[in-house]
Batch of 2 targets.
Target 1
Amino acid sequence: MADSPAVSVLDEHGAFRPTAAAEPYADRAASVTTEQKLRFLTDMVETRAFDVAAANLQRQGHLALWVSSWGQEAAQVGSARATRPQDTVFPAYREHAVGMIRGLDPLAIVRLLRGVAHGTWDPAESGNFQHYCLVLGSQTLHATGFAMGVQFDGATATGDPERDEAVIVYLGDGATSQGDSNEALVFAASYRTPQVFFIQNNHWAISVPVERQSRVPLAQRASGFGMPGVRIDGNDVLAAYAVTGSMLDAARSGEGPGLIEALTYRIGGHSSSDDPTKYRAEEELQRWALLDPILRLRRHLEVEGVGAEVFDGIDARAADLAADVRRRTLELTEPPVASMFEHVYAEPHPLMDEQLRWLQDYEASFGGDR
Amino acid sequence: MTTMPMVRALNAGLKQAMADDAKVLLMGEDVGALGGVFRVTEGLQAEFGDQRVLDTPLAESGIVGAAIGLALRGYRPVCEIQFDGFVYPAFDQITSQLAKITNRHQGRLSMPIVIRIPYGGHIGAVEHHQESPETLFAHTAGLRVVSPSTPNDAYWMIQQSIASNDPVVFFEPKGRYWPKGEVDLARPALDLHASRVVRTGTDATLIGYGPMVSVLLAAAEVAAEEGRSLEVVDVRSLSPIDWQPIVASVEKTGRAIVAHEASGFLGLGAEIAATVTERAFYSLEAPVLRVTGFDIPFPPARLEKLHLPDADRVLDAVDRAFAY
Ligand SMILES: Cc1ncc(C[n+]2csc(CCOP(=O)(O)OP(=O)(O)O)c2C)c(N)n1
Ligand SMILES: [Mg+2]
């Protein structure tokens, strides 16, 4: 299954060698400037540094949970950099790079996984990066409905790619089995929504290998729903960028939805609670570790003549970002008690006021020594 | 007698049920090689093979719907839902199908399916991982709902649930998975649907189930030091409820406090308060009081302690019951 042709532009060593499947995207990939590539590299390195810092914070008890994007940076960065400002993004829960590229303060992700609130950012102020969704597959329908609205509003397919909106939704290989995900594909195809389904096939759904979810490449499923499906090398940032850009632009020009399956690998455990040695082979991990997306782009840039001092600068800025996140995490204060009762409803609700008042009086009865 | 935590007791109970009946299957997400995210099914796939312990595709409606088909074919599936908050994709299969098939078939066949759901708080997790949805199922005719509070009950109740010809929604208090307790491997102490007095007392009755029982026992311990004698009843079975021990206790003490982590509004506490009031009205010195989670979404980890009823909140209600 892993052998079915995938769009790949950079080979394992970072050389620009598009595969046959990449032919329709080769020009787009070739037109990416060195400056853009350095931007992609910076995004990936910063995401990795953030990930490591957050995992450490979790280990030290500052976060309830951490879900890592280690290994999946190219799929996330390439696809996110292919979105346009007017687009809307529906993530699953490990799309940290996508969020940061859309303008989300990474501390918001930390606060979410620390357990400060269930939603810690305003999508309208974070590049239309919607909230993380922990119930697998749910977000796919939200994205589809949103894209239907975009269409009904006449905000797409006007012929102006600078304004026409599109929607991208992220899901994992495991989540493709959910009813919601399949229903979203049906709705999207039925209404020809301006939308891309971006599957990060990291080969595992916690301990369950992707073969349990599908006997065929996930990209192949798209045609059964009535939309194009493209499999890409998800550790190749240029492939992710070119294919996503092409599919998003097709969507925004009125050609309907599409699906991308990005082959990548979850280098870490499923989450900070997981022990992957219980179910997967060390050789598999080692094989994928050699295909590290950051290393690949860096090699490519080295061949293009980028000097060591440039990489050092990127690494240093990423270290600063991680240190800044760490510092701001340690400065976080506890959420106010009242926040539990706030915004449960949009309109006043008597039980909320009553129960908050009860709790405040009750806590006060301990005179602050509780 | 042997001592083990609830996760091991459940594992041993499942293993025994599988050894006793070749039609018993386990199915769910990550229940195979990993042994479940809480390790309840650890080692069972290695022992019984992957046709008896199935790592399913990732879809809860699929798990329960397929279990119904397997039951129609004569199997006795035990489904694991990974966390309380992820049962809802299966809600339609559970409430519209599983709960009603026996009735539809006019008793010609039954649905011997167990749905195991780790539930409740105290683990400081993110959204959807600490909910208490038991009322939704207890409210649905055709489903039996139980929740053990000790390793011994877990060991026996899981086997009794699997042996039941009705669908049983089996709520496992995940916050109580790890404390050890005595397990009597020789014979069950009680019927699956029996409630039980777990501490005797004379002044008031504390009523709870699953994760609350240890909290109620702790509250009774503190109260005893202060000279108040509290009786504690473990409800164990949420549908049906075995009223006799509960009503008898309240008739003796004259005061009742019901506690659960689930929200109070229309929770099991409301049902218990109403029934106790109907059946023990002339014995009551005070209204039956409820100590519950607030009527809000389960809060983020940093606030969960304020939401979950603790011994202090229970004792506060006891004080109020005595103030009438
Ligand atoms: C409806 C639902 N069921 C179960 C879970 C528990 N769970 C969380 S992540 C996960 C595996 C997801 O795998 P995949 O979709 O491949 O995404 P990945 O974690 O690999 O990025 C499971 C079973 C959940 N979050 N939601
Ligand atoms: Mg996956």
Target 2
Amino acid sequence: MRVQRVGPYPIAKPPPAQRLIGSLLANKRLPRHALLQALGMLQYHCGWISPNHLSDLSRFAKLSIGEIKGIIEFYHFLSLQPPKPYCIYLSTNIIDRWQRAGLDLSLLEENENVDVKQTSCVGMCDQGGSLLINGLPLTGLTQERIEKINDLILRQEPLSQWPQDWFTVEESIHVKGPLLTNSIQPGDALNKARKLGEAGFLKILQASNLRGRGGAGFPTHLKWKACIDARGDQKYIVCNADEGEPGTFKDRLLLTSYLAKVVEGMCIAAWMTGASRGFIYLRYEYIYLLEKIQATLSACREQGVLDSATFDIEVMLGAGAYICGEESAMLESMEGKRGIPRIRPPFPVTHGLFDKPTIVNNVETFCNIAYLADDGLQAFIDNGNAGSRGSKIHSVAGDCERSGIYEYPFGSTVKEMLHGCGGEQAQAVQVGGPSGKLVLRADFDTPVDFDHVSSSGSFMVFGPGRDLKLVAQNFLHFFKDESCGFCTPCRVGTQVLAQHFDRVCEGLESQHEWELMNDIASLMGQASHCGLGHTAANPFIDWRDNNVTADSLSAKPEFIPVFDLAKATAYSRSLREENHDN
Amino acid sequence: MSLLDIDERLLDLIEKVEFGRSPINDIKVPGACDIGLVEGGLCNEDNVRTLNEFRENCSILVAVGACAINGGVPALRNEIDLKDCLETSYLTGVGIVDAQIPNDSELPLLLDKVHPIFDAVKIDYVLPGCPPPAEAFLELVTAVIEGREPNLGYQLRRFD
Ligand SMILES: Cc1cc2nc3c(=O)[nH]c(=O)nc-3n(C[C@H](O)[C@H](O)[C@H](O)COP(=O)(O)O)c2cc1C
Ligand code: SF4
């Protein structure tokens, strides 16, 4: 797929679906797993999935229109509504909101030529105020720029004619550690690993105690061993580039500037397991990187690192769903379905993509593999501590002087990191995104590692003036918006927490509601189907534990109705008066 | 009404309880009472007033059935604008004769959304189900009379 700048919509003559998705068709058939990819392409090029395209897809894929609609409705970025000439997405992440705080966007909201919609974090927290327009990131927003954008939109100027520097995403690396400084000659990491032999490298991997960088911190050597041992005529290697945790953008950097290393990491995995195909599952928000990624993959093929006869890598696009970062939901999504987490066990290492043994690792984990193979065990374990070896790349954003990318050894304290980014004044830091942990000033000596406070890479700094209650509220709404809806504790629980926490923010909540929220929060932790539900109450729990005491609770009224009778009947009263007048 | 499913055991129960306001005896104003069983969601202002009266008069208030607990089927209208809802029901829907929106000032005003009853008052117990099983009623009332916590076994709480 070519990532030209598209817009204004509708594009002059919407080509038939065949033209846009031809590369996915095999004998005029659209394989089931290619359906989501086809939808993503149609959405990107046409701004929606039109009824014509819908029936084309139904014919090619031999699926009912209803079934296809069911998939479209699952993903935020797929739409069945005819688009306006432009479509803007604003990130709801608290950091992005603050960055846009001084800007007046009402111009755009009132502009008839553009739909202004909201979405969860788009991975641009270090880029100043930003937005997505027709799928592409536009950064460094100022009031002046907004006015210019508004003019261009009014004139329906094609996106390709807009000032191209508006679309640059800066690489903001502030501290480089071993991972970001090491440079690998193409093929070297793989060759060095090969020299050690499978068993040899697995031993190194075990000795390094490398743990997954995607959030859960599962020991990589155990995952790989299980996949090596699993029986299957076909195995797959999947790189998780969904990077959905609000405040995280370190995978964006790795995909932009360090992809060759990621590829080598994947090649090592393929060689160890005998997998012949690999995939990078790229979040739709990063579609602007697609061409660059494909160019790097081509370069790797030319250099012989990738060899289509033994192992090749393709990119698959997501379509806007935080839950698709969860590995089993991601596999469903890659098979062209709604991204609903699978029941585990069996785990992907034995029953993964298309039910075949599959290794799923985060982008940064694969980078670490390549680094470990290239620089050796000693260099790797020189960083970090016993429980958490190596270094971690952090996406630092919020109230600090230098937001951007920082690589620190595991075990660095929150205080050290704040010192590095000029955020010493902070009252608190959210480590690991909304599903992570809020660390207050008194605890800034806490090390960031797997044994203390673990991080998927998001590090949001909250200055002294910020109201942490509003931060918790923002996170709870994030989970409410992103719950996949499959299981009741999470689908209902995230709604209930968001709804009643809104009342906490207004100071209107009762003891009864606290009881309800407490019950729901612990129920979600125990009874949810996947990790999203297990952690979705964390912002509530953190806020409660830091702020609510038995005394403050007993000062609350026992019960308060959640609606006001006069207000709730105002509308029907006005309808009645209208009718009487007629 | 599904309380009546307890069949002949109603006779034993009557020995122990007296019915205040209920569909069985058509008393309109509730007096002081030990247990209030409330079914249905809150659709109009009258529902809210009645519920408040119940809360004031009953020591224990129980939400009975899916609609009282979750809003149920009537709450399907929450996604639809009230005006559209009334027009479809009384003006433009299928099979309507003498189309007009009922507009008598005697009629209670509709709420803009249907609410479960614990949105308006504190609830002590819930009896889930549509309707709840007769055994569940019996267990709840018996437990209250005997002064113990009700114990609704799993079979009384699963509905698939
Ligand atoms: C709700 C949810 C979202 C997740 N999002 C991501 C993500 O965006 N990127 C990622 O690498 N892992 C994510 N994970 C973790 C993955 O399920 C999986 O553990 C990880 O990709 C494994 O790779 P690793 O062992 O290299 O960390 C998420 C997990 C959950 C429960
Ligand atoms: S916990 Fe939430 S996200 Fe996970 S399966 Fe259940 S509803 Fe979906």
